[in-house]
Structures are given as structure tokens and as C-alpha cells.
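ENTRY TYPE: protein
WANTED: fold as C-alpha cells:
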Amino acid sequence: MTENDQGNVPSRQRKRFPGISSRAYEHPADRSALVALRKLSGFDTVFKALSALLPERSLRLLFLSDSVRVSDAQFSHLNDMLRDACYVLDLEKVPPMYVAQDPKPNAMCIGLDEPIIVLTTGLVELLDEEEMRAVIGHEVGHALSGHSVYRTILLFLTGLALKVAWIPLGNVAIMAIVTALREWFRKSELSADRAGLLAGQDVQASMRGLMKIAGGNHLHEMNVDAFLAQADEYEKAGDLRDSVLKILNVLPRTHPFTTVRAAELKKWSESRDFQRIMDGHYPKRSEDKNTSVTDSFRESAGHYAETVRTSKDPLMKLVGDIAGGAGDLAGDLGGRLRNRFGAGGQGAGNTDAGPDAGPDAGPDAGPDAGDGGKHGAGGGQSEG
């Protein structure tokens, strides 16, 4: 063990990311979903009201009284991992962490004023040291991104929706916000998975952890490559009916499907963005105030356009084909108009307008109209 300014850390050396901004690892869909959430009608009013009314002190007392707080005296190995993750991701204040009795493997980061991390006994018993390190880094990533506030409100609203289900239209209004929060929540998990990889710096451990959460502690019976192949099969399986069923299946969930998370994380681990962070090139928190909202929108739009273009899902392929067809139609229509008016100009060659109109309309309009077709397809993908 070695000493550092935040306590003991394991001897295995990991790269540290001083001053790293959450923008470095946040999934584009996370940022865009959060922006959309904040624009949802009535959300600001509900957010401000709940921020004042939620019993956070009660929440903290609940965990303090009925769970085990991680420290040097209790679950010391988890405490070392927590401080290590905070050290690597440069989170200045180490959040309190608790272990709660629950056989279902789960972890969460909640709290309005200050984040609290909670691990279930089912998760602690399921994962080995490196897998757990990725999970704790995942939760520290939530804390660094400021996700805990919205996650706490989602938990409260979900319970509230059940209590007011009998009120006409009351449940509808709440469920609209709950649905938007769940959409953002799922995207935030992809961001936190990346933070977990940065904290643990062991992609195989991250993959194993997700696989165990899906299939239990039978590692000798499972295979990471086969697990990732499931994600590929899920994405491209079936027809449009299956695409609709995928959407319906995921709507009530707070987390993306585990195979999808594994595939997304594997893809990011092989990307240039991840390598640049590991090389020490990443956005800093000190630069966050200068961040352009327009650039964030552009990046998110580009991500969705690329997702539609490369997706193997039947519905996404249909969206891409429709967008491409619209672009082809625009190009074809432009070509027909050029041919028609170009021929007309040549027919009127004995007039002054003829010679000028012919060359100008032909060469210049041709390439522009063709590009317009391509841009039409690209624009359609962005909208999709």
C-alpha cells in the first residue's frame, strides 16, 4: 500500500486524472437527454419544489441507522476502493458509502446536497475486487457528474406516482416527468460505466462485472465474447415488430439492458476518445464554465446521426433508408428540373437569354443539387 493525500490506495498503479471534467466521459446521449429533460414543461417547477421538500436528512438517517457504513473499521477493502476511485477521478470530497442488506445486486448514488453511495450485499458478494472497483468507480462517476440529484427525484416521483394513481390526470402529469427522467437515467448509466472503466482501468473486469450482474456468479459457465455477441444479435434481430417491442421493454427500466451496456463500453474502450484520456488529454473542470451549449448539441446530434447510420436495428435502418430516400428524391427532382430547363434554354438558343442561361444553370446547379441530395440524407439522419 502507498500513501497519498486522500488516504491508502492499492499498490497496483493506475493513471490519475487531475481536474478531469465529467464531460470527458459523459455519453453524448446523456447530455442531450438531460437538456431535453430540463426543457420539459413543468420540470423546473417540480424540481424546485421537490428540492425543498424532499427529506434528505431523513434519507441519511435511514442509511445510518439500518445499513453498515463503509470505513476503515467496516468493509475496509471497499473503503480503500472508494478512496482509490476518488483519487483517480480527482473527486475532492469522498462521499459516504453504505452496504445495505439486499440479495439483489445493485448500487446507487443518491442525495440532493451531497451524494451518498449505497451497495447491496448481493453485489458485494457477487463481484471480485477488480469488478467491484469498476462498480465503485461507476458510482463515483455519478457523483462527479452531479447525477445524484436527478436520481433522487426519480426515486421519489416513482413512489409518488403510485400514491396518486387514483387522482384523474394527476398520475399522467407525474408519469410524463418520470418517463423523461428514466430516459435520461438510462443514458447516465452509460456515462457512469465509462467512469468506472477510467477508475478501474481494466476493461475485462468491467465486462465480467456486467456479465455477472446479468447471469450470476457462474463465471466458469460464461464467456465475455459470447456475451457481447448477444448484444449484436439483440440489436439486429427480428423485424419492425421486434424494434417496437424493444422500445416497450426498455421504457419502464431505469438501466439499459446489460448486454447493451457491455457493448457500448467495449466500443468506447477501443475509441480514440478513451485513448486520449488515458494519454492525459481531456477536458478540465476549470474549463466547464466556458463550455458551449451549441457544441454539446452538435456533438449529440452527430452521435445520433451516426447511431442511425450504423445501427443494425430494423427500425433504425428504416429511418436511415427513409432519410436516404428523401435525399435521393431531392437529387432526382433537381436533375429532372435541370434537364427540363436546360433543354428549354438550348431550344431558345437564338435569344440572348439562351447561351447565358445554359452554361450557368447546367454546371453550377448540377453539383449543388447533387450535394443537396446527400445533405438531405444526412439531415434526415440527424433528425432521426
